[in-house]
Amino acid sequence: MSATIRAIGTAVPTKTLDQPAVRDLFVGQPDLGRLGRRLVPAAFDVSAVEHRHTVLEELDAATPAGAFRDEHGVLLSPSTGTRNDRYRELAPALFVAAARDAVDRAGVAPESITHVVTVSCTGFTQPGPDLDVVQELGLRRTVFRQHIGFMGCCAAFPALRIAAAFAEGDPDAVVLVVCAELCTLHVRASDDPDQIVANSVFGDGAAAVVVTADGPGLRLDDFATTVVPEGASEMAWNIGDEGFEMVLSTAVPRLVGATVAEAVAPLFERSGMRVTDIPVWAVHPGGRAIIDRTQDALGLPDEAIAASRTVLRDHGNMSSATVLFVLRQALDDGIDDGSPVVALAFGPGLTVEAARLTAVGTATASEAGRTVTGTVGTAATAGAAHATAVATASVS
């Protein structure tokens, strides 16, 4: 009996940011120094990001000013408390929309879900969005709930491990995993190279999967984790007074390139496969250079990582949710039944997480759930600000 991802759902905010417009917003900040004025265009223009989504209306110069931008186009730097208030207001709608998409695509009854695992590193609140998922989807009040917080871009993998353990231990388990990240809540104008890189690639989004024992979908065959201690100071995620602070140094792609082959080796040693046996690699697009270094280190053809580049182009880096977007994109592009897949993500530590999957009955699964991407809009009610899910489905 093997755990299988039966369906992948996604959701993004309705506000789309075009990369040139965001670049111009940041490079036009009055307090930006000479170094920043050189680094901002360079970082944005080589990012391979064309557009991404945000919950912050103020990042679009055509919208009214707010807590993050004044009427003169100057970016403000609200306190961490103010940013987290926005998370508490806006995150639940993304969690719910992605979860509903996954459940609908999997064709399971909400009342059959036995476990909910939520993932997020861009905000904290209790009661948390897991309860919104339970209430809005009509899940049983007795459903088991587990939250994974502040693990960064690789956090979908421990969530999938937990889901697999539940499914393999109980043939009746139906596990819903939901990753939602509001990364743009932590942007701010800065001359710091790490912050500039973060400003150029991060976007907002949510992804969810339904995991059961067996069935059509992506079978979870094996996992591998490794830590690169020399990278601990190169990728980090800390809480500051003016938002969460990302450390993402230029050394990260080099470290990834130097260690990724060793990190995935256990998956091949235990399966008897070779790198060339894997036609699809779902590589977390932490940035263009990370994809490039991974491709070079493993000798992958362009088509093997096409889904990663598509997600980077269309959504940027959405932290923990991103690798699930890549798997969804790969399924939409087409994965042959019986084909092996390797998924990879990188997080603070420096941690490399990997999983080997196999497409099972994907022709049937693909036909049952067409390409539907949910978008989430936000609105303020007269009494209090609440996130309102506006489910828009576009079949492609």
Can you put this structure into words, describing what you see?
The chain is α/β, with parallel strands linked by helices. The chain folds into 2 domains: 3-216, Peroxisomal Thiolase, Chain A, domain 1; 217-362, Peroxisomal Thiolase, Chain A, domain 1, CATH 3.40.47. It is built from 11 helices and 16 strands. It has helices at residues 19-27, 34-45, 80-106, 129-137, 156-169, 193-201, 251-271, 288-298, 306-315, 322-333, 362-368, and strands spanning 3-13, 15-18, 51-54, 115-120, 144-149, 174-182, 204-213, 217-227, 235-240, 243-248, 280-283, 340-347, 351-360, 374-376, 379-380, 385-386. Helix 2 runs parallel beside helix 6. The two termini are 34 Å apart. The model is unreliable at 364-373 and 378-396 (pLDDT under 50).
Features:
396 residues; alpha/beta; Peroxisomal Thiolase, Chain A, domain 1; 2 domains; ten-stranded mixed β-sheet; two-stranded antiparallel sheet; 11 helices; 16 strands; 26% strand; disordered C terminus
Layout of secondary structure:
Blueprint: E1 3-13, E2 15-18, H1 19-27, H2 34-45, E3 51-54, H3 80-106, E4 115-120, H4 129-137, E5 144-149, H5 156-169, E6 174-182, H6 193-201, E7 204-213, E8 217-227, E9 235-240, E10 243-248, H7 251-271, E11 280-283, H8 288-298, H9 306-315, H10 322-333, E12 340-347, E13 351-360, H11 362-368, E14 374-376, E15 379-380, E16 385-386
Parallel strand pairs: 1-14, 4-5, 4-6, 11-12
Antiparallel strand pairs: 1-7, 1-8, 2-3, 6-7, 8-13, 9-10, 12-13, 15-16
